[in-house]
């Protein structure tokens, strides 16, 4: 038998307020984490191709207000607005070159209409005779990549469809001639892409005659590697100049680098220890 | 017939407003019509005047974007219009989701759901927490966090450019408003509505109450999607001061006693 009086806790206004506050903050955190999780997944579309003049993807996603004015301005209906279910950041503009490539309008109607600057006019302009003019050849929507195993030109068929479709014929896509040893009397017309000039418009992918395009546009971050600064072209005087004033101090210090090769090559623990 | 029009005059005007805007936006994309191009997020009026969603621009600032003048001017124009003149009129005169939630709300009345359902409670201030959450999340994720999930954008863009799976979001809101919470989306969750509510505190166009004419039938509170704003009904004459009033005019339409009207706000406090 409990003789002591059990005191009922007094629910004051302050307690109610603090409790409700804690509940609101807690629920916000819960909802916020689920929401953040969704947003992070929804942002990811590594193979998406953006309109000309687009900022790098991270900035583009920040700045695109999803108004659709670029898509409306495009006279060829190249640009599509990502719909829910497209597995692309919702509402943002993109294009599929195999269906409708960018036709490289010289007046670039899609870029100046962008109200936020997600499509940057500066990046597709150049100075000619002191005037700023639009230059569609400066756009870098992606990079054309050739799959040599599905490209029939590598079989010996003198296709050159992508070469002829390219608006920068001979510059962005050029043909390399190689002797066809199988027939002994023909030349391969091998399509090669110059990454410095290719705009990623996709006219080549659209023109490719194979079932699934053997030349296709990939975003530059996906298609390209990066050499880095530590290789010098010894045959290039300008590149050799980069060695001037470089310190010859050794900066790598591992267990292995402190020893002489004769010592560490015969000791398996140092050789395989990282 | 005349009485029907009188009893639904605001509703009809609102639908004309919402549908005209939709037709203009749709035609810009489908037929190249140059009157109103873009979407509710950002558009171009008559090829010269930029108009942008100020809440979306705020999110983009939070996300760290450095934006062009066009969108900033557009956001300012829209914000100033609703702040000074229209009040929260975006919600009942422009937003396409309003047609969905109004339908759900009407079905609730017709099917007596209010009287027969199991109540699910949700506070009216959730939408203000949503605004805070949106801005914090925009900073964390580096994108406009509400814009990427907004059902308003999904519906509007869907009608102009193609729905895709967007219909699922619209259906979700309809079912939520019909079976879960009365006026659930617009009155409790939508942060854009919350944003305009805050911005509209001092706007000019207001619903006015004439207390002597009021017979306390409370039909106005029955149809109002934000009935907490009608606290003065039957108590004192004056303006509906809350920014949460969407100026939809339903209360004015259903009042048989001429106790409600739309007018210009009384900025001067006449009570000594």
> What's the helical proportion of residues of chain B?
40-55%
Number of helices of chain B: 14
Order of helices and strands of chain A: HHHEEEEEHEEHEHHHH
Oligomer state of the chains in this structure: heterodimer
Beta-strand content of chain A: 5-15%
Q: What is the mean predicted local confidence, pLDDT of chain A?
A: 91
Low-confidence stretches of chain A: none
**Distance between termini of chain A?**
70 Å
According to DSSP, the number of beta strands of chain B is: 6
Category by helix and strand content of chain A = alpha+beta
Task: Round the mean pLDDT of chain B to the nearest integer and report it.
Answer: 93
Task: Work out the radius of gyration of chain B.
Answer: 19 Å
Order of helices and strands of chain B: HHEEEHHHHHHHHHHEHEHE
Sum up the structure in keywords.
heterodimer; A: 274 residues; alpha+beta; two-stranded antiparallel ribbon; 8 strands; 26% helix; B: 272 residues; mainly alpha; three-stranded antiparallel beta sheet; 14 helices; 54% helix; 8% strand
SSE diagram, text form:
The complex is a heterodimer of chains A (274) and B (272).
Chain A: H1 13-43, H2 57-63, H3 69-73, E1 80-81, E2 93-94, E3 125-128, E4 131-134, E5 143-146, H4 161-165, E6 173-180, E7 186-193, H5 203-207, E8 215-218, H6 220-223, H7 237-240, H8 261-264, H9 268-272
Antiparallel strand pairs in A: 1-2, 3-4, 5-8, 6-7
Chain B: H1 2-7, H2 9-31, E1 36-38, E2 42-45, E3 49-52, H3 54-62, H4 69-86, H5 89-93, H6 97-110, H7 113-116, H8 126-141, H9 151-161, H10 166-180, H11 184-189, H12 191-199, E4 205-209, H13 219-223, E5 238-239, H14 250-254, E6 260-264
